[in-house]
Specification:
The chain is mainly α. 73% of the residues lie in helices and 2% in strands. It is built from 13 helices and 2 strands. The chain has a two-stranded antiparallel sheet. Helix 7 runs antiparallel to helix 9. The longest helix has 32 residues. The relative contact order is 0.14. The C terminus is likely disordered.
Length: 309
């Protein structure tokens, strides 16, 4: 009995560690692949004076012309420091929340996946939010007008000049409000699409797992499901993303005093700005990012949702 208990414990630790590492690597690959578009999104969301009059692709060209090609990846180092623990915690906690919700609500409950995804997203963003703040500040800087010199300097400056630990969590409220539908819907939509494809199109979308006991999605199907799930979820939660960025970058903006509270940040940004200004480019960014994110998700290394033969 004790030996079986030890085996279960080691299996759980092994699963958790592999989920952590695989989730982190998946997040780093996904975010690096879309880093230029991610920087463009931040510049346009907060109306950087050099780029606010441009569209997505014109901004990309203007960055290369004004700041040189490496500037497209500005703040990607801070993003990598943030994204590994973020993605790792999100995927690892998602599995734990899913097990908990399944025990409470039953195996077939769709609500359990939605709640598990939302809880996982909130857990991950709470653990890594100060790094997201730092990354946004570094990405918003334009070459020749630098205020911050690196991750440590940014964090120290915000802490000492803007109000201590609370300053590192500016924009946290709209982040949580947006994360609940975003993370819940992205995980839920991916899971539902996965089961739908494996049930109705197993020969086109499925491949046999290593143990030969069930089916897993093939790579093209994962790309399709991940991209669609992410784009749908991000489109719904996008207004909160704009409000978060404007609150995070308020100190770097001319009229930053208007964006210090959630209600002000949303009120000062017209609906068309919240919904459409960057949404086309953002949906493309999220599409690519989630295609990679879900394709290399920990499930490939740790578990398989099987359809028994």
């Amino acid at each position: 009995m004790e030996t079986a208990s030890k085996r279960n414990w080691f299996a759980y630790v092994d699963f958790a560690l592999r989920s952590f590492v695989a989730g982190g690597v998946a997040g780093m690959c996904a975010k690096t692949s879309v880093a230029p578009l991610d920087r463009v999104k931040i510049l346009l969301q907060a109306h950087n004076i050099h780029y606010k009059h441009l569209g997505v692709f014109k901004t990309l060209r203007h960055i290369v012309h004004k700041e040189k090609f490496p500037a497209l990846y500005k703040s990607n180092g801070a993003q990598m420091v943030r994204i590994f623990p973020y993605a790792a915690v999100q995927f690892m906690s998602y599995e734990q929340y899913k097990k908990l919700m399944t025990n409470l609500l039953g195996q077939q409950s769709h609500v359990s996946k939605l709640i598990a995804g939302s809880c996982a997203g909130v857990t991950a963003v709470t653990c890594t939010y100060p790094l997201d703040m730092v990354r946004a500040r570094l990405a918003f800087q334009v070459t020749g007008e630098h205020v911050y010199t690196g991750i440590r300097h940014t964090m120290r400056t915000i802490f000492h000049q803007e109000g201590g630990y609370r300053a590192l969590y500016k924009g946290f409220s709209p982040t949580i409000l947006g994360m609940i539908p975003y993370a819940g819907l992205s995980f839920y939509t991916f899971e539902r699409l996965k089961l739908l494809l494996l049930e109705h199109f197993p020969s086109w979308c499925g491949s046999t797992n290593h143990s030969g006991t069930g089916l897993i999605l093939n790579v093209p199907s994962k790309l399709l499901c991940g991209g669609f799930a992410g784009a749908l979820a991000q489109s719904i939660s996008y207004p909160f993303d704009v409000a978060r960025r404007r609150m995070q970058l308020a100190e770097m903006m001319k009229e930053g005093h208007k964006f210090r509270y959630v209600s002000c940040a949303i009120k000062q940004a017209p609906l068309v700005t919240l919904s459409a200004a960057c949404l086309g480019g953002n949906d493309f960014l999220t599409l690519i990012c989630n295609m990679i994110f879900f394709t290399f998700k920990p499930g490939d290394f740790c578990f398989v949702v099987e359809i028994r033969k």
